[in-house]
Q: What sequence folds into this?
């Protein structure tokens, strides 16, 4: 009997089907891992209490504090009263419902999407959800990982399932070899600028091709992380030896016979040879330059070697209007060379680019260099564990000698819910994922960049490629 | 949940595309732990501009928001829907919504209907020509009726059924307890558990 060839995402869907929906009803899917943080969960726990419901699987649920937590003086009570109350609510709720939590000060505290993988809880073949759009990060392991809203958080807490409508599938084929100074971040920024912020709507994106296979798990997470910026519900990469090696010694990796069985199951997690995607995109990795954004959505990006595009060059009237609005907000003019844009702040952090490899890449570039005058650089590790690892490798010293701020783990300036914000009008090169108006502080201007570009920019004071330092 | 079927109110044109959730409600309002009272956070930054449409007295009390394409992109914050709802909107129309926003709307009884770009333009024109024009939004027939014009909007069948019946998603799912338990019984043993905590 031959069965219909399936894409990886479709296989995961099939494997998690609790009930198939009929007459337009959504399918009911089982959720293997539920990650929780303080911002999107308090109202969900309230809902449970109101309805007199319990958490169905506390053993598939884990919480950490990240969005509101300070990155300095973490031994002091959180200064802002509303932030403090929100973190406290998470602590109270996890105590009441007996859910594992990694609080500020704990070795495993950190950004939720850094914590899951480093504990080895994120693995191939799972469904992973979190009340956070960047849950797409976990797709890097070959898991179906989706961001959900607070009502859905409540739903998963109560039932460990989610009713979901089917997705379409899109293949993002990235073939070739990245040049020196070009990284995963540049691939994903190029993808988003190609398909636009709405281009992935309704799709699960599967990243494939030799350039993706060559990436480390960190790089793959960076790519899947930003799938949501293309409007996609999830991004996914088929697991391979690199994935298995990464997981092998993680605390929650399967042991003994379970590991052998897992490897067997995981090796089947690929898109069938003759499966058909609903859409396909091709990116040439050989010719890719460092990519940066000039506007106020992640799709408004260009090669760092280029200039800011003329709004008139967009055929689509709404894109043109968006470009005009973005340039006004960003205080930039069409035709300006990207490399002539001077920044005030460099932010190395966020769930996109604050894993150990990202810190290493940036440290390698700034080691022994001098920061440009007037620049402020903030380095915020994605988790406490990343921070400790970096300190073991002496990276903290490299950053501090360079004049950067070495901080404690959290979301920090990625969204500025804690005190780490830009002042109005300030301009940042940021390794985070969103350059929306006001995201990093009211009136703040954000250019999304890779860790290597962030480092080179801190040295030169203007948006720069690592190769600019060699001249 | 209350049943949602039909209402009549006035409209507001939001002639901006790609309105992300950071604009609908900035992160600082996300620190609250309540589920209501988010009306002050709605478009909080844009509202500081006196020319922003929310500040236009002609559109006060509007219940129908007509926005440019790609509405609700960005973060998963359900607060965006709460803010629109608390401000008084009962329906939002756009030619394209972000997936998570669409899902969140359905959970909170906010009608998020997809209309064509041409219909968006036509609604903008009618609302601007007469801000007091009565707009009827009819969920069962998926129609927007204003003046003599009838516009059809798209909404997925299941969400429509749930909203019109006033059904709570969790309650529906809990009826499938047997299927969930059966699935759990055959789950692979290599799948991770968060408890007990290991090696941490
Ligand atoms: S680092 Fe930024 S994008 Fe990532 S979870 Fe935190 S706030 Fe969200």
A:
């Amino acid at each position: 009997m031959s069965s219909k060839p399936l894409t990886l995402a479709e296989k995961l869907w099939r494997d998690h089907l609790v009930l198939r929906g009929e007459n337009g009803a959504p399918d009911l899917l089982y959720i293997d891992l539920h990650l929780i943080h303080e911002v999107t969960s308090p109202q969900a726990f309230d809902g449970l209490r109101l309805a007199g419901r319990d958490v169905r699987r506390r053993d598939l649920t884990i919480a950490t504090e990240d969005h509101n937590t300070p990155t300095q003086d973490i031994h002091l009570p959180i200064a802002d009263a509303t932030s403090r109350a929100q973190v406290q609510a998470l602590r109270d709720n996890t105590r009441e419902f007996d859910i594992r939590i990694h609080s500020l000060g704990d070795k495993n505290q950190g950004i939720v999407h850094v914590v899951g993988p480093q504990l080895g809880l994120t693995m191939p073949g799972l469904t992973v959800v979190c009340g956070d759009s960047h849950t797409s990060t976990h797709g890097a392991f070959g898991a179906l990982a989706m961001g959900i809203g607070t009502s859905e958080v409540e739903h998963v807490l109560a039932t460990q399932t989610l009713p979901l409508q089917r997705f379409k599938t899109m293949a993002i084929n990235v073939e070739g070899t990245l040049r020196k100074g070009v990284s995963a971040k540049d691939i994903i920024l190029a993808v988003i600028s190609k398909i636009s912020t709405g281009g992935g709507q309704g799709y699960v994106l599967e990243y494939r091709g030799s350039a993706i296979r060559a990436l480390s798990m960190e790089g793959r997470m960076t790519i899947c992380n930003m799938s949501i910026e293309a409007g996609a519900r999830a991004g996914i990469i088929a697991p391979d030896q690199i994935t298995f090696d990464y997981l092998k010694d993680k605390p929650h990796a399967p042991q003994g016979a379970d590991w052998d069985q897992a490897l067997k199951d995981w090796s089947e997690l690929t898109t069938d040879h003759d499966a058909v995607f609903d859409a396909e995109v091709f990116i040439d990795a050989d010719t890719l330059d460092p990519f940066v954004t000039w506007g106020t959505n992640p799709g408004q990006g260009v090669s760092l070697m280029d200039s800011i595009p003329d709004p008139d060059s967009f055929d689509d009237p709404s894109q043109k209007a968006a470009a005009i609005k973005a340039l006004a907000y960003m205080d930039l003019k069409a035709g300006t060379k990207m490399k002539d844009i001077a920044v005030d702040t460099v932010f190395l952090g966020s769930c996109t680019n604050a894993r150990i490899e990202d810190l290493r890449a940036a440290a390698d570039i700034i080691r022994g260099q001098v920061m440009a005058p007037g620049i402020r650089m903030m380095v915020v590790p994605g988790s406490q564990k990343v921070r400790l690892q970096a300190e073991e490798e002496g990276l903290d010293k490299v950053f501090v000698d360079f004049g950067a701020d070495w901080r404690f783990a959290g979301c920090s300036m990625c969204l500025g819910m804690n005190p780490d914000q830009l002042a109005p009008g300030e301009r940042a090169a940021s390794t985070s994922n969103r350059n929306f108006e006001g995201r990093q502080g009211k009136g703040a201007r954000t250019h999304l960049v890779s860790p290597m570009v962030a480092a080179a920019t801190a040295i030169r004071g203007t948006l720069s490629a690592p190769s600019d330092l060699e001249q | 949940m209350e049943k949602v079927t039909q209402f009549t109110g006035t409209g507001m044109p939001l002639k901006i595309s790609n309105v992300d959730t950071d604009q609908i409600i900035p992160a600082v309002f996300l620190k609250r732990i309540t589920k209501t009272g988010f009306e002050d956070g709605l478009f909080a930054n844009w509202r500081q501009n006196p020319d922003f449409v929310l500040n236009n007295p002609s559109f006060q009390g509007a219940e129908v928001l007509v926005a440019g394409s790609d509405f609700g992109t960005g973060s998963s914050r359900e607060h965006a829907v709460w803010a629109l709802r608390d401000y008084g909107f009962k329906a939002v129309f756009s030619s394209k919504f972000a997936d998570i926003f669409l899902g969140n709307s359905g959970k909170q009884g906010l009608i998020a209907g997809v209309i064509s770009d041409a219909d968006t333009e036509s609604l903008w024109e009618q609302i601007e020509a007469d801000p007091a024009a009565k707009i009827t939004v009819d969920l069962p027939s998926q129609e927007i009726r204003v003046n003599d014009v009838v516009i059809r909007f798209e909404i997925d069948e299941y969400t429509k059924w749930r909203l019109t019946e006033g059904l709570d998603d969790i309650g529906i799912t809990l009826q499938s307890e047997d299927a969930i338990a059966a699935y759990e019984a055959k789950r692979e043993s290599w799948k991770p558990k968060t408890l007990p905590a290991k090696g941490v």
Observations:
- Strands of chain B lie at 6-9, 11-14, 64-67, 91-94, 111-114, 135-138, 143-146, 149-152.
- Chain B has a mean pLDDT of 95.
